[in-house]
Every structure is written in C-alpha cells, then in structure tokens.
Amino acid sequence: MPTTRESGLGGFIRRSGYLRKWLILGISIGVIAGLGAVLFYLALDYAGRFLLGFLGGYDIPEPVGDGGDPGSAGFDRPWAIPLVTFGGALVSAWLVAKFAPEAEGHGTDSAIEAVHTDPRAIRGRAIVVKTITSALTIGSGGSGGREGPAAQISAGFGSLLTRRLDLSDEDGRIAVSLGIGSGIGAIFGAPLGGAVLAASIVYRRDFDYKALIPGFITSATAYAVLGSILGFEPLFGFVAGDYRFDHPLDLGWFVVLGVVAAGVGYLYARIFYGTVALTERLPGGKVLKPALGGLAVGLLALAIPQVLASGYGWAQKATVTDSLLAIPLWIVLILPLAKIVATSLSIGTGGSGGIFGPGIVIGGFVGAAIWRLGDLVDAPGIPAGPAVFVVVGMMACFGSVAHAPLAVMIMVAEMTGSFSVIPCAMVAVGIAYLLISRADVSIYRAQRLDRESAAEEHRSGD
C-alpha cells in the first residue's frame, strides 16, 4: 500500500517518467506564466493610462505590438510629471515595505537565487505584491521593465509546485528556471528565446541542458496562452524585415557596435549596483528613498521624456528613419546613459520593476546613436535605415551584460521579426560578450559561474 507521501498528485508526478513529468509540470507552469503575463500587462496598461495619462496628461508612445500609439507630442502639465513619478514610487515602496520586503528591486535575481539555494522559497504574497507595485512604479513613469514581475509570477508558481508536490531539489530548480524563462518569453512574445533563457540565465558561463527541452513545452504554452488573449504580433512588429546581409565588409560597423555595446552594458551594471550600494548607505527609510528616486526621474524626464516608463515606444521610433531624425541628436546620443541613470534611480533605490526591458531600450539607442553619427557624415557602408543597428544594439548590449548572448539574440529577433540580422548580430554580440566576460560584472548578481561551482555550493550547504 502506498505511503502518504507517495499518494496523491505529488506522488503520481514523482513516480512519473521524464516525459510525463515534464509534460504535466511544463504545461502547468506555462499556463500560469501566460496568464500571469496577461494579468501584469493589463495592470500596467491601466496604471499607465490613469497615472501618466489622466493625472500627468502625458501618453507614452507604444510599440506596434502594444497598439502603436505615437504618444503625446509634449507634456500638457509638466509640473505634474515629477509629482506622479514621486507618488507612484511612494505608494509602491510603502506596499513593498509593509507586505513583502523581498519584492523590492527587479525580482529576477530573487528567482535566480531561489534556483540555487531553495526552489521552495518564493512566497505567494511576494508575487501579488510584485505585480501591484511594479504596475504602480512603471505606470507612474518609473524606468523599469515588465519582465521582472512576469518572471516572478511564473517562477513563484514553479516554487509553489515544488512545495506542494514535494518535488526533489533538482526538479524544483528546473521548475523555477522554467518559470523565469517562460514568464519573460511570454511577456515579450518570444517563446524560443524564453526557452533558451531558462537554460542559460542562472549561470554566467554555462548552460543547463536539463531545462532546455522542458523549456520548449513551457514557453510555447505560455506564448499560446498570452497570444490567444492579447494577440501574436511581435512587440516591435517587423522592423528590419527588408534588411539583407550581402556586403561582408559592412561587418566592420558591427564590430564597432559590439565594442560600444559592451562598454555601455558594463556601465549599466556598474551604475545600477553602485546606486544600490549608495542607497543602502544613505539616510532615510525603505519608503522615502525609492520615492525620492521617482521624483528625480520625473525631473529628468522634463528634459528627456524618453526615460519615462519602459521606453519600448521610443525604441520603436528609433527603428524608423523619419521618427529617429525627429529626435534631437543630443538626446539620441545621451539617452543610453540617461536611461541607465533613470533605471538606477527607479529600481536601484528599491523600486519595483524589471531591468531586462530598460537594457533592451538602452542597447537600441546605442545602435541608433551610432547610425545617426554615421549617417551625419555619410560614412561608407552605413545602412539606409537605422533598424538593423537598433535591433543588433539591443542584442549586443543586454545579451552581453546578462551573460545570456544566445537567448537575448533569439528573443530580440522574435520581438522585432528580424532574423535576417543574425549574421551581423553574431559579430556584435560575440565581441560584446567576450569583452564583458573579461570583467567581473553581470546585471544579474545571483548568477553562479557554472554548474560545477553551483553543485559544490549545494554540497557544502548540505
């Protein structure tokens, strides 16, 4: 007669073979990842329309996949913008401090840490608080990405399954990894990239092959659920579909782009975590410091509106020649640094939101800046439009500093419908990653070096 531990659904899954076990778990996590991504997308959309739109009098530009609204030409009530960013950050920080202190920051690191230390550790309360507070932070104009909350929702469900079904630590780690990848892949409409991300995001120099095949099932399920509700249009549409790589000498431009992207990615990690360290030393509580950071972002936005919220709509504008040329050159050149500062002030001070999305926008404007300068002097080999530079910049900048070059390359290609840029991207991303690898820096501090070092840590902790 089966023991209590071996009876019920948990016992059935633990006794199941590889295929049946990961079909059940993978589809279950994928469904929650897709629904969680939809829930957070709608919460963020409503928060943004009310806080920045109604109270602030400013409509953020949207990418094609979110509707393509070109946004406001300027601020109707400039004085209201700093007040809205301050108020949103204040309420968000109070909720975090009151109900779930672990929901502070970007969230993905917490999920990665759970993979390595205790896959049962993510509390359900933290997921709820993260969803609400991130919607408030980003919806009020804070510079953050929507992938952090989406990843924490599905990673938290993987953690819940690990607890309730009493899964082994090894299966639990895979389940939480699948949650991270499928959540991010779903919210960005990038299922293949999400599956590869699940297998690569937890290490700096390694790949968890055990999470890859279950990741296909989980990410495809999450994408199907989200797409059936919100649509299957790529986030940025098909922005470089007419690009064809047919001049090998043009790769020189992507060598330059890779070098610059690595430098900006390095600055992103250093400035972000420098802000985290400085914030910890400054006087003031867990509520006041994020609120003041939000106020600073609002004041910065009066000069550079592109730093507000996720910035995906502005990245969309950067892919089109006419709309990019309409942005003053000095803003295009300074925007990568300004977005780094705004993200650090919004999330690094203790606010709630992701850092993947801002990294994509930062990289996109790195590419846009290089194209603008090349076009200005009519440099030889410069493409007719900026789209390929923007797309490859997204891949190289964040793919390198996240130590997930292949996953980010695939994700951005899916988000932009731009697989034709892959030959150029391989050069830029490869160079950027090799340069970043020489420095002890990552945008995700919870990553372990490789599977061997992680296994040694598990053994020493037993």
UniProtKB/TrEMBL annotation:
Location within or outside the cell: Membrane
Keyword Endoplasmic reticulum annotated: no
Superkingdom field: Bacteria
Record keyword Transmembrane present: yes
Primary localisation category: membrane
Topology relative to the membrane: Multi-pass membrane protein
InterPro entries: Cl-channel_core, ClC, ClC-type_chloride_channel
SUPFAM superfamilies per record: Clc chloride channel
Stretches that traverse the bilayer: 22-44, 174-203, 215-239, 251-271, 291-315, 327-349, 355-374, 386-412, 418-436
Keywords of the record: Chloride, Chloride channel, Ion channel, Ion transport, Membrane, Transmembrane, Transmembrane helix, Transport
Stored PANTHER family: CHLORIDE CHANNEL PROTEIN CLC-E
Protein name from the UniProt record: Chloride channel protein
Organism for this UniProt entry: Mycobacterium deserti
